[in-house]
Structures are given as structure tokens and as C-alpha cells.
Request: fold
Amino acid sequence: MNSGKIALTSFYWAFVVYLFVPLALMIAMGFKDSAFVGFPIQSWTTKWYVEVLQDTRIIQVFGYSALIAVASTLLSIVIGTWCAVFLAPATLWGRTLVFAVLCLPAVIPGVISAISLRIFIRTIGLEPGTFAIILGHTIHNVPFVALMVFARLGSMPKSHVEAARDLGADDFIAFLRVTLPYLMPSLVGAGVFCMLLSFDDFVRAFFLGGYSPTLPVLIFAELRSGMSPSINALATVVLVVTAMIGIWAERFTRRTKGGTR
Reply:
């Protein structure tokens, strides 16, 4: 028993090292006082971070990516919540089949999905660009919202909605005043998750984008000309921002769930 516990603990810490050592090396290279990425690091500097924060092009691309992430997340929350509420009744015929079709965009490989979406937007006459990227990210994110909301609905007591109806509320009012507040922790978690997925997505943004690149596409374009500490600095800034958003979402979700209970 002790040997198995030791082996499991060793495997866990080996995985932690495997996961975080590359990130630590990336962050360290962003402070290197040289135009080339590699060891040894003779001296340290913050000039690459200053350049990133003062580069108007990077700031514009960052805002453009954030705009796409927010827009696709809002659409995904509305559509995913509606799908989950529609599939919630246990007596719905064919629910398993509909739910399986709904989850397809989440399991299809990204390249296949991006190529098919590229063909689709051309078929309907939509040019590659902002709206095409938002459409692609929304289609990919809806299954995750539906799964989270569906799981939350499964733990909701039916007596809450029935009590609201007994007090004279119709289905829409009962949803707004009872179901929606109960779903808020899942909606916040799903929203943050979808926002980070959209912000970090490269494949769909690359195939569906126009002349204005998103942040991952910009980083890829910069990498084609060679590694530079400025790229490491930019990646570190994005990593810190996404980590802060994730931590805030986790704390907010826990507080909201505690208040609901």
C-alpha cells in the first residue's frame, strides 16, 4: 500500500514538473538581456516587457482578440443555455441523439472543423474576418456551455420552479427569477472557459480570419521569423492575464455556489 502511494505521489510530482518547467523556462527567457533565446542567461532585463506594453499593434490585436472572445462567449452562453434547458426534461424523445449531435463540435479535430467552417462561410457568401471567426468560435463553444448548464440543471430541485408557478409566475418569469440565478455559477464558469478558449484559439482564427490577425495568429507570424525574447514576454503577459481571470472565476463560482446553498 505504501509503495503504491509513493508511486502515485511520484507520478503526480513528475507530471507537475513536466507541466510547469516549460512555462518557467518561457518566463525566464522573457527577461533575458539578449536578442536570442537560449542558455546561458548572462544578464536580466525587463525591456522586452516594456516593448510589448508600448507596442500599439500588439495592444490593438489584444483588444481585437478580446472583442472576438467576448462576442462569441455571449452568443455561446445564450445558445448553450437554451439548448440545455430544451434538453433538460427527462421525457424528451430522442434527447440522447440530439445531445450527441450538440456535442459534435467539441470532439471534431480543430483542423477538420476549421476547414469545414471555411467552406461553409464561402457557401453562404460570408467573407473571412471578424464575423466568421465569431461564428466559428461560437459553434465550438456551445457544447461546453450546454454541458455545464445541463449538469447544473440536474442538481436543481424541481420544487423551486413548482413553487414559483404556484405563486402565479409563468414559465418565462420562473426561468428569470428562479432558474437563471441558480444557473449563475455554471454560466460564469462556462463564460470564462469559453472566453479563454476563444482567446487562445489559433486554428479557427487562422482559417477564418481576414487581414486583421488575432493574438495567437500574430504570435505564430512572429515565430516564423525566429524566436525572440519579446515573444516570450508577450506569451508571459497572456499567461498571467488568463491565470488571473481563471482564479477570479474559480473564487466567484465558489462564493456563488455557497450563497445558493
Remarks:
- The CA atoms of residues 5 and 11 lie 10 Å apart.
- The mean pLDDT is 83.
